[in-house]
Automatic annotation (TrEMBL), chain A:
Lineage: Archaea, Methanobacteriati, Methanobacteriota, Stenosarchaea group, Halobacteria
Region of interest (Disordered), residue spans: 794-816
Residue ranges of domain Aldehyde oxidase/xanthine dehydrogenase a/b hammerhead in the record: 31-151
Species annotation: Haloarchaeobius iranensis
Protein name per Swiss-Prot or TrEMBL: Carbon-monoxide dehydrogenase large subunit
Single GO MF descriptor: oxidoreductase activity
TrEMBL record, chain B:
Name of the protein in its database record: Carbon-monoxide dehydrogenase small subunit
CDD domains: fer2
Coiled-coil regions listed: none
Keywords of the record: 2Fe-2S, Iron, Iron-sulfur, Metal-binding, Oxidoreductase
Length: 816, 180
């Protein structure tokens, strides 16, 4: 169902929360009035370019900057030695920190410029500062670097090989960490007693986020005040400020970080990279504004890729088709260094989701992180949860086949029952609320499932191979209760902060520490605040993404903004309402307990004529001529909202595909998504998030993948080679919702940013496996391009002596 | 580096400027003339974020040289409509939620106008094909296709006149009914 958007002016104030109103962000974005980082032009601004490694792994023998320094228009060329010299500004670590620790974690140094060794192609070796961007790039090309090449490793299995070249002296065997979750012994027993098992051996490929706006930063140092302002492509300005302060050695209170309009992130703009810190340092060095904007090639070499798992896993069932155990062994690619939150991604954001939507009595997960010569791997849309959901749903598909049950019946049999919530899994989380059968039933109805199975059979008889694949996903988002996050290794609290300020005229500015970059927070947050305060939607302005304006913040990622940021705004607004109640009671000469507040009006219980509007109360609060004794003037409130649990969105996605076994081509015939993201603040925005998420999941299933050669040279280093899906590649999506409010936050929201990406890949792979069942094809690694599909069909046809692919006269002997 | 004196007419305003031979049109527009509404996504003509209209044709300004545009009429997103008076394509994107981060949107709209000029009533498939040179990473394209259809409807004079879009309407579809 397509949601129709509404003009906010046509929506009653009382209905603003939950209305599909048009976004207030759009006019600026549609008229060219947006301000992205590269749009910023400052007087006397210099441009920075980074000299990067030619090789995936090499020792640096010599860096000769003399030719570059001599070029006209070049203001300076700097290496690691210059950064750390006593003669230059800043006394920072000049190394990038890791903000999530694990007991077994091997913390390796990550200098912002390489001085002895380069460990991936994106490693910076020197920076050039010049008058314009062309000259800066020319000069970067003129820096002469002598290398001694070293063997490289790309995949974790290669990194762990006995004879593998070691990346870091301290990381023996290239092991970054060794981590486990669940109960190994109990799970081994479950497998020993099981009637059936199914297994899978898969690779979840590395993906590159490809936000349309490349990363960029503009730094401006004021030598008079020692203040350093950095405008940059960030999803979390306060986090970047805190980390950067330590990296460049400039105090946090003299450093401001601002996110102008940000052109997408998908995780890639969470992490603290070297480049932005180098821009800031260069600005101090030259006492002038400095800009750096990544070329697309640079984003391919430096943006943290996501996923990158090699996994062996098994599922165990009893005779009745009940899942009795799940066992997972994963090697996770961490890349060359540990990126900001990287250690959390293949561990706590992955292992804790291995129960999926199912009641599984025994689970064990083992994950070993590997240092390799690809860029540092970190969160990309979904981050750990897509890998978990993919694995669970692939195993469930195979498990159903193993016990001879329909995949729908098998799933329903094993769903966590509706009356079991809150449900504690075997992998350390408690699901908040759910009714997992509901989206499944709705998806089946949309698909007309029974009819489809008949059609599939008829088509097979005619040599046409249709398949349906299901994905019943769960995700944990709304990161996160700070105490729990701390126990798991986070070096930060994961609360969110906000400030709601009534102005004397009755309008409102709401500040929140999240930092949207396309999600429409300006609209949805205004809906939330207008609803709480009972003021017109147009009277609420939302401010995000600026450390100078917003008290504190943790940023936007992990589908946390509505659940954590939105809830913080609710809390701040409620404090404003409470203070307003005291003022209204004073002015109306009533007891505060007798004051009622509804739709922006304070009134005396039983005497509705004695009332004051929120705007009048705000005016009185600032006038301060007649407010309660002891009360401070003004009407605003700050809150730090710390969630009590994660929230757990869920849903069922289903794809119907046609696969041509002769050519290996896959056509998505239908894509149905029924998502339960809890209450919806703005259903049109929810729909957009689901659409975009699915598109990235389709991209992973069919098109995308970062590929490196044996020297760790990126082969997919441009949009020509890395297949970001185009309009023709994405199917029409049929979206529906169910609503199961989360009990854990005042809005009852669950989070929607990542759902589609988490759900989609396995729906498509399961559909392809279903279509190719007559050929004995159980699994094809992503991206499932025509060659890999064709090869899988051929391999199985040959190995099993089974069905010959294709031809009208083929009799594949399907089981259905 | 040799320099050239060129004249660009951007959104009706004539600008004389001196550029290096290698200066890309998009950098001349953005850095020299301040038309920052046109964004750079890949500098290799693959993503389409930088699409502008040059003498009535959609071109990717990251792979055109400024000197190639000497004497040309360039139209950028800044020339569409204002927030109080949207062009139908802007209206379509707003109503259909055809944008999220907005970075691809100016280029997307310029290409959409090209599509609609050639084919005022495109099918969904034709729109998807027409947008093959423009990447969006946020929306999954469905609402962009809706946006272009929405604009197509709005821009057909027949539809405006009789409020309908019947197939047997005798009024011939013109080239858009509004300056593209």
């Amino acid at each position: 169902m397509t949601i129709d958007s509404l003009d906010p002016e046509d929506v009653d104030a009382a209905d603003i929360l939950g209305s599909a109103i048009e976004r207030r962000e759009d006019p600026a974005l549609l008229t060219g009035n947006a301000e992205y980082t590269d749009d910023i032009q400052l007087d006397g601004m210099l441009h920075m370019a980074v000299v990067r490694s030619q090789y995936g792994h090499a020792r640096l023998e010599d860096i000769d900057t003399s030719e570059a320094e001599a070029m006209e228009g070049v203001h300076g060329v700097y290496t690691y030695e210059d950064l750390t010299s006593d003669e230059t500004p800043g006394g920072g670590s000049f190394a990038l920190p890791t903000a999530w620790l694990l007991d077994s974690l091997e913390q390796v140094p990550h200098p912002v410029l390489a001085s002895e060794k380069v460990r991936h192609q994106g490693d910076g070796i020197a920076v050039v500062v010049a008058e314009d961007r062309y000259t800066a790039r020319d000069a970067a090309g003129a820096v002469d670097v002598a290398y001694e090449r070293l063997d490289a490793v790309v995949h974790p299995s290669e990194a762990f090989a006995d004879d593998a070249e070691r990346l870091h002296d301290d990381a023996e065997g290239n092991v970054a960490f060794d981590w486990e979750i669940g109960d190994a012994e109990k799970t081994a027993d479950a497998f020993a007693d099981a009637s059936h098992t199914a297994s899978i051996d898969l690779e979840n490929q590395l993906l590159i986020a490809n936000a349309m706006e490349p990363r960029a930063a503009v730094a401006e140092y004021n030598p008079g005040t020692d203040e350093l302002e950095v405008a940059m492509t960030t999803q979390n300005p306060h986090v970047h400020r805190l980390l950067m302060a330590g990296v460049i050695g400039h105090p946090e209170h003299k450093l401001s970080v601002r996110a102008p309009d940000v052109g997408g992130g998908f995780g890639s703009k969470i992490h603290h990279y070297a480049d932005e810190a180098l821009v800031a340092w260069c600005s101090m060095m030259h006492e002038a504004p400095v800009k750096w904007t990544a070329t697309r090639s640079e984003t391919y070499l430096t943006d943290a890729p996501g996923r990158g798992h090699e996994t062996k896993a098994e599922i165990a069932m009893d005779d009745d088709g009940n899942i009795v155990g799940l066992r997972v062994d994963t090697m996770a690619n961490m890349g060359a260094y540990l990126s900001t939150f990287a250690p959390a991604v293949p561990t706590y954001l992955y292992g804790t989701l291995l129960s999926g939507q199912y009641d599984i009595p025994a689970i064990y997960g083992h994950v070993k992180g590997a240092f390799t010569n690809v860029p540092p791997v970190d969160a990309y849309r979904g981050a750990g949860r897509p890998e978990a959901s993919f694995l669970v749903e692939r195993l469930v598909h195979l498990g159903a086949k193993e016990v001879g049950m329909d995949p729908v019946e098998f799933r329903k049999r094993n769903f966590v029952p509706d009356d079991a919530f809150p449900y504690e899994t075997q992998v350390a989380v408690v699901y908040d609320s759910g009714e997992y059968g509901k989206p499944m039933d709705e998806a089946l109805e949309l698909l007309d499932y029974e009819n489809f199975r008949e059609e599939q059979e008829r088509a097979r008889d005619e040599g046409t191979y249709l398949g349906v694949g299901f994905s019943c996903y769960i995700e944990a988002c709304g990161l996160a209760p700070s105490e729990l996050a701390g126990q798991l290794g986070a070096q930060a609290g994961l609360w969110e902060s906000s400030l709601v300020r009534m102005h004397p005229s009755g309008t409102v500015t709401a500040y929140c520490g999240t930092s949207g970059h396309g999600q429409g927070h300006g609209t949805t947050y205004a809906q939330i605040v207008a609803n709480e305060l009972g003021v017109p939607y147009d009277s609420v302005e939302v401010v995000e993404g600026d450390t100078d304006e917003i008290p504190q913040g943790m940023g936007t990622y992990g589908s946390r903004s509505a659940a954590v940021g939105g809830s913080s705004l609710v809390k701040s607004a409620q404090k404003v309402v409470e203070k307003g109640k005291e003022i209204a009671a004073h002015q109306l000469e009533a007891d505060p307990d007798d004051i009622e507040f509804e739709n922006g009006e304070y009134s005396v219980a039983g005497a509705p004529a004695r009332s004051m509007s929120m705007a009048d109360v705000a005016g009185a609060a600032y006038l301060a001529h007649d407010i309660p004794a002891e009360m401070e003037p003004g009407l605003e409130a700050t809150s730090f909202y710390d969630p009590e649990n994660f929230v757990f969105p869920f849903g069922t996605h289903a794809a119907i595909v046609e696969v041509d076994p002769d050519s290996g081509e896959i056509e998505i015939e239908r894509y149905v998504a029924v998502d339960d993201v809890g209450n919806q603040i703005n259903p049109k925005i929810v729909e957009g998030q689901i659409h975009g998420g699915i598109a990235q999941g389709v991209g992973q299933a069919l098109y995308e993948g970062a590929e490196y050669d044996d020297n760790a040279t990126l082969l997919t280093g441009s949009m020509q080679d890395y297949a970001v899906p185009k309009a023709e590649h994405i199917p029409e999506m049929e979206t529906e919702s169910t609503v199961t409010p989360s009990p854990h936050n005042p809005l009852g929201v669950k989070g929607v940013g990542e759902a589609g990406t988490i759900a989609a890949p396995q729906a498509i792979v399961n559909a392809v496996a279903d279509a190719l069942e007559p050929f004995g094809v159980d699994h094809i690694d992503m991206p499932m391009d025509a060659e890999s599909v064709w090869s899988a069909v051929q391999a199985n046809a040959t190995a099993d002596g089974g069905a010959e692919p294709a031809g009208d006269d083929a009799d594949p002997g399907g089981e259905r | 580096m040799t320099e050239h004196d060129i004249t660009l007419t951007v959104n009706g305003a004539e600008h004389d400027l001196t550029v290096e031979a290698r200066t890309l049109l998009v950098h001349a527009l953005r850095d020299e003339l301040g038309y920052t509404g046109t964004n750079v996504g890949c500098e290799s003509s693959l993503c389409g974020a930088c699409t502008v209209r040059m003498d009535g044709e959609a071109v990717k300004s990251c792979t055109a040289l400024a000197v190639q545009a000497d004497g040309a009429e360039i139209r950028t997103v800044e020339d569409l409509g204002t927030r109080h008076d949207f062009h139908p394509i802007q209206e379509g994107f707003q109503e259909e939620h055809g944008l999220q981060c907005g970075y691809c949107t100016p280029g997307m709209m310029m290409t959409a106008l090209d599509i609609l000029e050639e084919n005022p009533d495109p099918t969904r498939e034709e729109i998807r094909e027409g947008l093959e040179g423009n990447l969006c990473r946020c929306t999954g394209y469905q609402n962009i296709v809706n946006a272009v259809q929405n604009a197509a409807k709005e821009m057909q004079p027949a539809a405006v006149a009789d409020g309908g879009e019947s197939d047997d309407d005798p009024t011939p579809a013109t080239d858009g009914g509004e300056e593209l």
